[in-house]
Amino acid sequence: MSFWKKSLAVACATVVMMGTSVVAEQDTAAHSEAVSEEAVAEEEAEEEALAIPQPFVAPVAVQEAEQVVAPPPAPEAKPASKLQVTPYGSVQYRLRENITTRSDDDNSATTMDYSNRLCWRVGLKAVVDEQLSLQFQIGNDWGAAENINWNSNHGPRSRVGTQNLYVHLASARWNPGYMFIEAGVVPLNSNGTLDLLESSLNSSSSKQGYGEAGYNGWSDMNNSMIGIRLGAPILKDDIKLGVELFQSVINNRQQTIPANLADDPAANPASPLFVLTVPVEAGAFKVTPEVTAVLNRNYNSATEKGDHEYIIGLAGSYKVNSDISVSFNGGYGMVSNEESESGAYSDPANAPGGTFTPYNSNGLLVGAGTSIKAGPGTIQIAVNYNTAVNSESSATEDATKSGYLYTDLRYAMKVHKNFSVVPRYRTYTTTYPEASANNSQMVNRFELIFEGSF
After folding, report:
1. What is the pLDDT of residue 143?
2. I need a surface site. Which of 227, 277, 353, 444 has the fewest CB within 10 A?
């Protein structure tokens, strides 16, 4: 080959090699730029994700597949659990006017009292996974509403005591499907019996036995109680049937070690509370029978004898259509001190003391209600009637038999999806015992309620 032909071949090869190098460098630069832009985009996406509250996701270990010849792509790892936390809260402010009239055979007297009331609560629900959930809620006395005055502002020169603060709920619920266990301060609604129980456990000279159970009742307890609840579904098809048992303690008594250790300690058992409910649901109809028992409600360790308290009840509802529903509730309770010879009809202490006075407390509660959508809001109506008596003798009946009639009419208007205005009118009518100097008392309660929630 001539010198010129060899020179031309070398020049062509050099040009080809330089061109290939330039293309490779361009491809590498483009790839680096794309990777850089992708990293920046991922970094910005991570920053945006951090700026927006996200539900916590528990980390899961991912096992790397062994390197085999041409392995298939590993499936995307899925978290074993996903914690979802939902906060919520409500604030309610009430303008209230009470007009109270008490009458006897010849005279009557009327008082008028204006007040403002505040209710607030805040909480969160945490779903750990499909089986475990928790709920916490605190606030002031939501059920009864806190009376407002200057000292309620807790200024430095008007501060008196501490602000009212209650733990409404603090519960954990494990539900694998075939049963559930819930413990702590658990939600507990009344199905006719707990209204009577609340009155029985808070008796006083002005509210004896099961008196005033039809007025506010269990709602004053914020519909919750410290204890443990177990339940299981029995039927899950067209007719749903379950059973639930709640257990707590009313009095946690203790035994005393005797001076002579050869003697047996006197019995002094606690008084556990049991609430058994059997919820039944068939289409638009729901009914829940309920039995409540307080074992050894009254107990005398000196005689080692006690009396139990039993309350039976029933509550239900029926949805007529999308706009109208009706409800009902009822219960009957009984407790005495004849075996224990302790306590008194108006004394919930349930301990021996003073002169023994036997009593046989009985209480009845019946009620009905309805909810009707009308215009921009919903009309709600409720009526309860309750009686209470010490039926130990005709004399005790004349001295204690009382009647309590409660009515509640309200119209809840949502002026915003999270803000309501509720005009409300309630009456509390008490019929006094035959031996009382007074015949009756009626409280007319007018309220305008503003409530916001999230």
Report:
1. 86
2. 353
